[in-house]
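To whoever picks this up:

The parser on our side crashed when reading a file containing two proteins. I've narrowed it down to the boundary between the first structure block and the second sequence. Both blocks are reproduced below exactly, byte for byte. First block:
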Amino acid sequence: MIGPMKKLVAISELQEGKALRVDLGSHDLLVGISNGRYYAVENLCPHAWIPIGAGLIRNSEITCPWHGLAFNLENGQCTTWPEMDRLKCFDVVAREGFLCLMTE
C-alpha cells in the first residue's frame, strides 16, 4: 500500500535530462526524468549551499554548474568526490499522470 502523496508536476511536463523546479515552501526541489527513471532532489549543492538547478543532467547524474561536482540522482552520492555530503533525494512515484512526492 502506498502512503500519502503530494502531486508535484504532470508527467507530460517532464523531458528526459531536463529538471523542473518545484517550490514546496519548505523545500526547493528539482524533479525530472533521467535514463527513464523519475527523481526529486533538493535544489541545493551540499558543497557550496547554492542552487544546483542549472547543472547538466546526464546518465542519472546532475553536475553542479559552480564547481563541477556530479551527484547521482537516485541516491545523492557525489560521484566525483565520494567523501562529499550527499545531495538530498526524495521518494517519488508516478500516479494518475502526475509525479508525486511520498510524504511519509
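<<boundary where parser fails>>
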Amino acid sequence: MYEIPTDVICQKIGDSAIIVDLQNEIYFELNATGRFIFEQLAAGKTEAEILNQVVGKFGIDRLIAQSDMNALIVDLLNHELIISHNDEKATINPSNTHPQL
C-alpha cells in the first residue's frame, strides 16, 4: 500500500494531472493513465488491482502496462511523491494478476 504525503497535491487538468510537492518544489505531469494510477495508489489499491484496472480501462497490453506502471511508481517513490508501506515495490508478476475463473 502507498500513502500520499501531506505536502503533495494533485491538480487535475482535463484528463491529465500535475502532482506537486509543495515542500520540495517538485512537480510531475501525468497523462490520463498516470493520473489514474496515482489516484488508485492514493485510494489504497494494490499494484495488482491497479494493473488489472489499467489493462481493462485503457486497453493497454499487460506487459507494457506493467512496465510503465512500475517505472511511474519507482519515479514517484524516488521523488517522495508517494510513500510505500509494504515490500511490493513495483515488482508485479503479470502471470499472477489474472483473475481466477
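After patching the parser it read the second block fine. The chain is about 40% helix and 20% strand. The chain has one domain: 2-87.
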